[in-house]
Amino acid sequence: MSVRNKNRTDELRVKSKTENLSEIRDFVSANALKAGIQNATIDNIILAVDEACTNIIKHAYKLSPQGEIIIRIDYDEEKFTITIIDYGKSFEPDRVPRPDLQKYYREHKVGGLGMYLMKSLMDDVEYTTIPGKYNQVLLSKNIRSS
Amino acid sequence: MAEFSTSIKENGDIRIINLKGYLDAHTAPTLENNFTELINNSKFKIIVNFEELAYISSAGLGVFMAYIENIRDNKGDIKLSNMNDKVFNIFDLLGFPLLYEIYKNEEEAIKKFSGS
After folding, report:
1. Which are the contacts of A124, defined by CB distance < 8 A and separation ≥ 6?
2. CB of B3 within 8 A of CB of B36?
3. Can you tell me the distance from the alpha carbon of B27 to that of B32, in angstroms, rounded to the nearest whole number?
4. Best residue of A59, A108, A121 to probe chain B, by most B CBs closer than 10 Å
């Protein structure tokens, strides 16, 4: 019997196409299950990662399908972390308040919904840009209490 | 690839769109096409039945935002029904219940259209 290693890392690289979102969700789901996270929390993590990757496909790569997206998952008993890297246009979100839906409705604007969902569903969302190199979004969820 | 499909039922002048599967940025255009076609055919009383919808992201939620104004300007509405808790929670988190009528089942939504 080998000693069970609780610290795991896994990585997925996909092109910036919306058709790859389902593969991304499956990848996150499989790892979250291995980490022993409860289903409702897994659903939230999957949605947050989908939103982050959708933003990258639409805004960082502007729907060009040849961009690269790297999704790395790290977890231990305390925390489940997803690091998403892209090489497209950088994005620096300011504060993200709850969207004013009435205003969105009037202005036909829906872009801020995904960002708000990510911030609501995860414990931590951090954007980092290394100018001229890459953008990184780090999503994490504390899983001990979940 | 995400599986998503829709089917449309008629009930008098009401059209009911049934959603099935995963509604995300990749599959949202399917639903957009449904709304565009209904609007082109002057069908403005629309119910969307979520019973078989397993998943929705903000790209899917955005579809409802994109068409509601046009539909209401034409004295119609998009009413939503049969959402599971998981999908409802996402709508709720974003404040959609303030802007859309959400019913437990299709029959209630149909009654609301008939009564108005």
Report:
1. A138, A139, A140
2. no
3. 9
4. A108
Q: Which fold has domain A8-142?
A: Heat Shock Protein 90 (3.30.565)
**What was the ipTM of the complex prediction?**
0.93
Predicted structure pTM score: 0.91
Instruction: State how far the Cα of A98 lies from the Cα of A115, in Å rounded to an integer.
Output: 10
Domain ranges of chain B: 4-111
Q: How many CB atoms lie within 10 A of CB A54?
A: 21
| Per-residue pLDDT reduced to its tens digit, A68-117 | 999 999 999 999 999 999 999 887 666 556 666 666 655 555 567 888 89
Residue A146 reports pLDDT greater than 50: no
* CB of B70 less than 8 A from some CB of A: no
Contacts of B95 in chain A (CB under 8 A): 98-99, 101
B58/chain A closest Cα distance in angstroms: 5
**Chain A residues closer than 8 Å to B60 by CB:** none
> Side by side, which strands form the sheet with B4-11?
B4-11, B14-23, B45-56, B77-81, B102-103
Task: Please check whether residue A16 is in contact with residue A37, taking contact to mean a CB–CB distance below 8 angstroms.
Answer: no
Looking at domain B4-111, its CATH architecture is: 2-Layer Sandwich (3.30)
> Cβ(A97)–Cβ(A115) under 8 Å?
no
Q: pLDDT per residue over B24-60, tens digit each?
A: 999 999 999 999 999 999 999 999 999 999 999 999 9
A46-74 pLDDT, tens digit each? 999 999 999 999 989 999 999 999 999 99
